[in-house]
Amino acid sequence: MFYTLLVPLADEWSALNVFRYISFRSLAALMTALVISVLVGPRFIAWLRRLKCGQYIHEDVAAHAGKAGTPTMGGIMMLFSLGVSLLLWADLRSSYIWQTFFVFVGFGLVGLWDDLTKLRHHKNRGISGRAKLAGQAAVALVAMLALFLDERCDTTLSIPFIKEWTPDLGIFYIPFGMFVMVAASNAVNLTDGLDGLAIGPTIVAGAVFAIFIYITGNARVASYLLVPYVPGMGEVTVFCGALVGAGLGFLWFNAYPAQIFMGDVGSLSLGGVLGYLALLSKQELVLAVVGGLFVAETLSVIMQVGYFRWTGGKRLFRMAPLHHHFELKGVPESKIIIRFWITSILLGLMALSVLKLR
Ligand code: 57M
Is 319 in the pocket of ligand 1 (CB under 6 A)? Predict the structure, then answer.
């Protein structure tokens, strides 16, 4: 909104030129989303408590017993603060901004459907796995069609460290992109089992994609760093700024000991949008490094289930996903969380190094 209203006045008041800059608007979007979350947080938490939107806690990890009744669906707060921040700071004529917001809201609605069903049913039973997957796939399909039908769409895959070989997926870019989004969405959901565990690495990934996307949208920097240039993509940096701000604002309350959980409305939307940001920035494969922690959590479940079936009942980890394994080994929750954050920062830095090591 500020962009549309104030930039035309920049000829008269040159100070208003600052609103043209993506870097300035991205930082402003970050701070706006953060401040909104911190301000509305206490009322929102109290409101959820009044509505009795408390989390059901499974009995199998004893350390979690004290978390019973913690309000869930904090993802709604992120959606709100991010949405308001985008309205204020993004150039609303950008189709990429609307597409990205659509992915965030679409995956969020699938999660909300699951959260509300869990609240209604006994013992945390949400919608079926099939229904959840169908909802995620439908949102991903619409987003991929919007991306694919845009004349700026680049269906080639850039492979880290190999700049000569960029296979063109053509029409198969659509199912590939859907897979990236749905997998990322479920991976973040699996990780969301300790206070701040999912939001920390999401903030790191949001910041890393802000850099990738800024570069992708800047012809000069992109050609210097041998990164595919996509005109108009830079505007999505403002979305990343708002995402990081909304994430930090949520972490304010989700930090151990958490006053609120994000629910599926939060985890599915964050994961889905990280997948989409990877597609937009043409860093589809680098996503596995940026989100390496989410990948490790998912792999631990696949390995656990596979090993269990293969051996006829033996377990590889005390419990999957991986954070439960450390919990059952007696590592305190706050230590696991901070170690996972450190790992995700390292992975984020490794992903950024791809820019130089080519
Ligand atoms: C999400 N949800 C948390 C909260 C959060 C296939 C299988 C591996 C699936 C997996 C699973 O269900 N994952 C989905 C995990 C839950 O958090 C809620 O869910 C939202 C995210 N969807 O926002 O609303 C619990 O996590 C804790 N929590 C925190 N702080 C937070 O900030 O402490 C969440 C956020 C909350 C709270 O206790 O209630 C969850 O874990 O349920 N299933 C599992 O993870 C189960 N693992 C398992 O069964 N492993 C097996 C096999 C299948 C691999 C094995 O190892 O043999 C574990 N889930 C739980 N207890 N709760 C088992 C132990």
Answer: yes
For residue 51, report the distance from its CA to the centre of ligand 1, in Å.
Answer: 23
Say yes or no: CB of residue 193 within 6 Å of ligand 1: yes
CA atoms 254, 33, 199, 74: torsion sign: positive
User: pTM of the full predicted structure?
Assistant: 0.96
Residue 358, pLDDT score:
63
Q: ω before 8 within 30° of 0 (cis)?
A: no
| More confident position, 164 or 144 | 144
- In angstroms, the first-to-last Cα distance of the chain is 39
**How far, in Å, is the centroid of ligand 1 from the Cα of 18?**
45
- What mean pLDDT do residues 287-299 have? 97
User: Ligand 1 centre from 64 Cα, in Å?
Assistant: 10
**Domain-wise residue ranges, the chain:** 23-353
